[in-house]
Design a protein that fits this description.
The complex is a heterodimer. By secondary structure, chain A is α/β, with parallel strands linked by helices. Helices cover 22% and strands 32% of the residues of chain A. Chain B has 9 helices and 10 strands. Chain B has a 6-stranded mixed β-sheet, with helices on both faces. Helices cover 35% and strands 27% of the residues of chain B. The chains are: A alpha/beta, B alpha/beta.
Chain lengths: 653, 291
């Protein structure tokens, strides 16, 4: 097929011989009378060319005129080439920026290839068509919305980097469909390797094109790693699972390194090196027992190369070193200890009042400083012997620093103080029997949660509040004087109370965190800040807010160490690991087709070629040739004018 | 034509103080104001000569006779007139340009002729390709006749310079300083000038060209027609061509200058854009044509 839309324009080539003929037969010369042709005759070589055929020598003007005509004819013939360009009123580009786009099975990597394809698409687009760019990483961003600014688009392309999570294609596609809904002829182009979460169903009027990026899925990854107590609780053992996502069996070497401290602070000790044959599309698991006892973190590394290096390293940390610590001061309460031990990530210790006071009188009262919550079960410490952290008084027998006991209630009927108190969510107080309770007037710092219907008005049975930045709760009756501990309501109420008094205690620090996921670090109530050591050894100080601190710098894989700080003292909290490997991203084989319900007849797996016309540059060439011809013809005047202007500048200067 | 249109009276008054330079002493025909190789009756002593019969007694140096007892005659430098020849190219090519070469050349001839007449020298003139001055003129009173003759001239026709100069030489009589005013366009001028120099003429060539000949402003495809011969050349005037023309003109002028130097002739190039007053009062004095 002819690569010209209007080949009839070539009929105009007949004008070329006409131009040549006119040039040779130029008869209409302007006649000028001069004094003598004596000087002209001698010098002008042109003059000798009275014979027409002597003019068949290079003539720049004629050449330029012919070239101009050729360029013009070519432009009129509208040449085109088939390209994978797009058309429409609005181009919505979705570029996958997930971790698997860092795979270098194509040059420079999949994201680079996707950006190159996107640039190619945009280059073929008319300048007035707006472009929206959606970057689909683990979070969907719209760095450019309906913009005609191509240079800005270029800058945005340059700023795109492969992320560390998987692509949220579902959100990206739904967002693109929503953007396209308001357009008459919008086109959505998805540049991705097809890995990531797809929408269950998508209904969009816009045309959707999927351009697959990537050619190979030959990738191996450390798909699981953990560091656990060894059999019988002795020592530590590491568990590592390696998965070959490729189609060929490969040999890779696994190197396992144990670190006694944070890996950034000290070198590790290689504990095992193994050459492993990884069959195609299968996983190999291995356990390495008897690691050094001081190990706090291990690193597994696959040596050799595959298309996606980030998932060839993984870290695991030793089990939790410090959860939320709750101390019970009292004679011992089995119900209470039992209920508290059910809470995740909580360490409960019980201490007798005598030992408690002994610890206060000793020189090292700090042992109690790390407690998140101290429960005084029917006892009160001596005056001033209150530890930092939250306080929970159970069945106090006498007045204390925070409340007064003015009498006793017999068989009070516990009732919720307000209908929708969050502390009493799922707590059923009906039929709860309390034999005796202390009569405690409502302290100025507190609010009643449970009250008893009394002849003198409502007497509080459970008071919560905050005094001097310290959260306090008082339960007016001894658990042993009630059947509350036997009811389902008890652990729920206790969990709610602990959640209120020591908010961080509800959630333990996880052992692993997905890359770039923000993490709420649970902290004791008295903590003022959390100190996080990043994998590179640098430290971040995060202020505590309501019993937790938010860490959003979890993009780099490695080991993170967390401590908390109160009154200038620093206490370790735990560690966690961030690993780049995720099965969805490590399985990096590109998908050639995407199946999305609702888009079956519009989903286009292959690119559709369209015609790209080339008449614009040809018209520019023709104009340039015309200008060159004019300048050549009138260069005498041009030089003269130039000289005049230069003289004027000199005269003015 | 009214001869007063040729030159302004104020300009004529300035010309009264000028004289044409002659580089050689020549014998004249009449008493004049120029030193002659002849012995004559001026106040300037030249030599002694032994008395021979027939000599003027008044010239005998009696003091020498007293000392030597021999008769000697004192000889004095003769002061005679000179014959200046003023040739004006009256070919058709001179009647061209803005300002016109012909008008300019005729006014120049008028001024130079006036200077000759004021200096009590003999003036002979001719229009090459035209009429000759009927008789040589002498004295300031003849200035009007000179102007009238110039005014009567009309340029036209084709000129063969060698022939025209030869004709003039054959009838001019006594050679002397010769001033030629011409555009020198065409072949044959050099041969004619060489012949004049060979006959003891003391040549001064005043080469007159119009500004349009020095820097032509042609453009595009043109057909140039010779005003004298009607010969035509066709060319495409562009920047290159005009550049080459200017180079060619410069080379031609240099060639003429060297040819003139070879025959001991003065060569002065004049573009008609210069005012006649400036030319005569400053430019020609600088080139030692006038003093």
């Amino acid at each position: 097929m002819s690569p010209f839309i209007a080949p009839l324009a070539f009929a105009l080539t007949a004008l070329i011989p006409v131009i040549v003929a006119l040039y040779f037969l130029k008869l209409r010369r302007q006649e000028q009378l001069i004094s003598s042709v004596y000087l002209w005759q001698e010098m002008v070589r042109d003059v000798a060319a009275n014979a027409p055929w002597q003019r068949l020598r290079p003539n720049w003007l004629l050449l330029l005129q012919i070239l101009f005509l050729v360029a013009l004819i070519l432009a009129l013939a509208r040449p085109f080439s088939w390209t994978l360009a797009t058309t429409g009123d609005h181009l919505i580009l979705i570029v996958d920026t997930s971790a698997s786009m860092a795979a270098h099975d194509v040059e420079p990597n999949r994201l680079g290839q996707a950006i190159e394809q996107a640039r190619r698409l945009i280059a073929s687009l008319p300048a007035e068509v707006p472009v929206t760019l959606i970057a689909a990483g683990d979070q969907v961003e719209v760095p450019l919305s309906a913009s005609n600014d191509r240079s800005r688009l270029g800058q945005v392309f340059d700023s795109l980097r492969p992320g560390s999570g998987s692509a949220d294609l579902a959100t990206a596609l739904e967002l693109a469909s929503a953007v396209a809904a308001g357009e008459a002829d919008a086109q959505i182009v998805l540049l991705s390797d097809g890995g990531g979460q797809l929408p269950a169903r998508l209904s969009s009027a816009a045309a959707l094109r999927y351009i697959p990026i990537g050619v190979s899925g030959e990738n191996q990854a450390i798909s699981a790693i953990s560091l656990d107590p060894g059999p019988g609780g002795h020592g530590l053992s590491a568990f590592v699972r390696l998965t070959n996502y490729g189609k060929q069996q490969v040999e890779r070497r696994l190197v396992l390194t144990a670190y006694p401290t944070h890996p950034a602070r000290s070198g590790g000790q290689i504990v095992t090196v193994r050459d492993l044959a990884l069959p195609a599309d299968e996983a190999v698991a291995l356990t390495v027992p008897d690691l050094p006892t001081e190990t706090v973190a291990i690193e597994a590394r696959l040596e050799g190369t595959d298309i996606l290096p980030p998932d060839d390293r993984a870290w695991a940390v030793a089990p939790l070193i410090a959860g939320a610590q709750i101390q019970i001061v009292g004679p011992g309460n089995r119900f209470l200890e039992m209920a508290l031990s059910l809470l995740p990530g909580v360490e409960v210790t019980t201490i007798s009042p005598a030992d408690y006071e002994a610890a206060w009188s000793s020189a090292a009262p700090q042992t109690t400083d790390t407690n998140w919550l101290t429960i005084f079960d029917t006892v009160l410490p001596e005056e001033g012997h209150y530890p930092p952290g939250a306080l929970f008084f159970l069945g106090p027998l006498r007045s204390g620093e925070f409340f007064s006991v003015t009498g006793e209630l017999t068989l009070p009927t516990p009732l919720p103080a307000s209908a929708n108190d969050p502390l009493l969510r799922y707590v059923d107080l009906r039929e709860v029997v309390v034999q005796r309770a202390a009569r405690i007037p409502l302290p100025a710092w507190g609010r009643p949660v449970i009250v008893a219907d009394d002849s003198d008005g409502a007497a509080p049975l459970l008071v919560v509040g905050e005094r001097g930045g310290r959260r306090i709760a008082v339960l007016a009756f001894d658990l042993r004087q009630s059947d509350l501990p036997l009811r389902v309501a008890f652990p729920i109420l206790l969990a709610n109370l602990v959640d209120l008094l020591a908010p961080g205690a509800g959630g333990a620090l996880p052992a692993t965190v997905a890359p770039a996921q923000p993490l709420a670090i649970p902290l004791p109530p008295q903590a003022t800040a959390a100190l996080v050591t990043l994998p590179d050894g640098s430290t971040r100080r995060l202020p505590a807010q309501h019993g937790s601190a938010l860490l959003d710098e979890t993009a780099s894989p490695g080991v993170y160490e967390v401590a908390w700080e109160a009154e200038g003292e620093r206490w370790p909290l735990g560690r966690f690991a961030v690993n780049a490997s995720s099965p969805a991203e490590s399985d990096a084989a590109p998908r050639q087709e995407l199946e999305i319900a609702g888009m079956e007849n519009r989903t286009i797996a292959a690119e559709q070629p369209v015609r790209q016309e080339w008449w614009r540059p040809l018209v520019w060439v023709a104009l340039a040739l015309l200008l060159a011809e004019w300048l050549l013809q009138h260069r005498g005047e041009v030089v003269w004018l130039w000289g005049q202007a230069a003289r004027r500048r000199r005269a003015e200067g | 034509m009214n001869s007063h249109l040729l030159l302004e009276p104020a300009f004529l008054a300035q010309l009264d103080r000028l004289a044409l330079v002659s580089r050689r002493m020549r014998a004249g025909q009449m008493q004049g104001e120029r030193r002659s190789p002849q012995r004559g009756s001026s106040v300037e002593f030249a030599d002694f000569r032994t008395y021979t019969s027939g000599d003027d007694f008044r010239q005998i140096d009696w003091n020498a006779y007293a000392r030597l007892e021999r008769l000697f005659v004192k000889l004095f430098v003769a002061e005679e007139d000179l014959t200046f020849h003023l040739l004006l190219d009256a070919s058709k090519s001179m009647d061209w340009g803005e300002p016109s070469k012909w008008a300019f050349a005729r006014r120049l001839a008028a001024a130079l002729g006036y200077v000759v007449l004021v200096g009590f020298d003999r003036l002979n003139g001719a229009a090459l390709g035209g009429a000759r001055l009927p008789t040589p003129l002498r004295g300031k009173r003849k200035a009007l006749a000179w102007f009238d003759w110039l005014s009567s001239l009309r340029p036209g026709g084709e000129l063969n310079p060698a022939t025209a100069l030869g004709d003039y030489m054959a009838r001019a009589g006594r050679p002397g300083p010769l001033l030629l005013i011409s555009d020198l366009l065409g072949p044959g001028w050099e041969a004619g000038l060489r012949a004049l120099a060979g006959h003891q003429y003391e040549l001064t060539v005043l080469h007159v060209l119009s500004p349009q000949e020095v820097s032509p402003t042609l453009e595009g495809d043109v057909r140039l027609v010779d005003s004298e011969t009607s010969a035509a050349v066709e060319l495409t005037a562009d920047y290159d061509l005009l550049q080459r023309y200017r180079s060619r003109l410069a080379a031609w002028q240099e060639h003429l200058r060297q040819s003139c130097a070879a025959i001991d002739a003065h060569y002065v190039f004049i573009e008609t854009s210069i005012s006649l007053e400036d030319l005569v009062l400053a430019y020609l004095r600088k080139y030692e044509v006038l003093r």
